[in-house]
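Sequence only, no structure available. Ideas?
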Amino acid sequence: MEIQAVKLGNFKVDSNKNFEYLNTNDESKVIKLAIQPFLVTTANDRVLLDVGLGFLEDGIPVILQKLYELQIDPDTISKILISHLHKDHTDGLGYFDNGSFICNFPKATIYIQERTYEIALQQISSSSYNHELLKALKTLPNIVWMKEDEGNLTPEIQYKVTNAHAPFHQVFWIREHNETTFYGADDLPTSGHLRKHIAFKTDFNGKKAMELRKEWEVEAVKEQWKLLFYHDMKTAVYESGSKV
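Reply:
I predicted one. Tokens follow.
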């Protein structure tokens, strides 16, 4: 199993969920975080875990540029697993050109929880979502709309709905050759969330998120998981047993 962080950059976020690239010496008191989808390659699949923001540079989506820099052809990605539909996790699915939606990954199968999609559509006043993109997703033929609370997409890929950071948020395990990689997305976004056993007010169900992190920490050590931190500016991949 090969793991590659596809880091789009470090960002700052204001109260209206506007994302800007973070300057090195920025001392402002806003939220600062990394945005880094993960590419996990197994014998059977090339899996992208979330897709980041939809920024364009020179007319090209940044997510595609970063994949090219890693010498990854986006058309070789077989599966895209979406944890939840906040725009910093989903906007990299595509962009609009003269009113038409262009999918960045037309050859991949995209897995999205249908219930989180239905709720996201109702959050009209929330700046956490890109509603134009959400509506466009229904036009894509390569989406699998997931309906179950837990299960396996393949013998190697397991998922579970947590309802912690966001309604019907889901997490993923990928297992191969006695290795386990765990992606908690925004239920476990940074290594600091392992150190701080507290409930965060920014979560849909902060208490549940806190309890899940405690459980995962114990299981990760016992089973030697590799943990993927989507928003950590310093540590992208953490091997259980190492110092956080």
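The radius of gyration is 17 Å.
Hope that gets you unstuck.
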